[in-house]
Write a structure and sequence with these properties.
Elements: H1 11-20, H2 22-25, H3 39-42, E1 51-52, H4 55-65, H5 68-73, H6 75-87, E2 89-90, H7 103-114
Antiparallel strand pairs: 1-2
Helix pairs in contact: 4-6
Main location: nucleus
GO molecular function, one term: DNA topoisomerase type II (double strand cut, ATP-hydrolyzing) activity
InterPro entries: Meiotic_Spo11, Spo11/TopoVI_A, Spo11/TopoVI_A_sf, TOPRIM_Topo6A/Spo11
């Protein structure tokens, strides 16, 4: 596989080229182990742990949902992003520690890995 390296300061000049190289820049095997919008209910996060989506959050989420590869290849991502828009809230991963200080390391992450709960 041929990978191309782009310098951050040269990014504006290379955006057009990057569109042609998208198939080389993707990582289809990546698994998202982080917090899902559906986790707020699953792990009973209190309302004070939820943050309202900003206009920028909504704009970016809607733009992501328009990407063609999400429509074809990542239905679970689409579900989670739509759920976040419907609820109008987000939360930080650290909010899961509301239950106990070691909840992330002792419960959340092991359950995600062992249960194969990832996207």
């Amino acid at each position: 596989m041929k990978l191309k390296l782009y310098q951050i300061n040269a990014l504006p000049l290379l955006c057009k080229q990057m569109a042609y190289d998208a198939k080389f820049l993707r990582v289809p095997e990546v698994l998202w182990l982080g917090a899902f919008p559906s986790d707020s209910e699953k792990y009973s996060l209190p309302q004070q742990c939820l943050l309202p989506l900003t206009a920028e959050d909504k704009r970016k989420t809607e733009a992501i949902l328009l990407r063609c590869y999400l429509q074809r290849e990542a239905p679970q991502w689409r579900f989670e992003l739509k759920l976040m828009l419907e609820r109008g809230v987000k939360f930080e991963l650290e909010a899961l520690s509301v239950h106990e200080i070691n909840f992330l390391s002792e419960v959340y992450i092991p359950s995600k890995i062992q249960g194969g709960v990832h996207i």
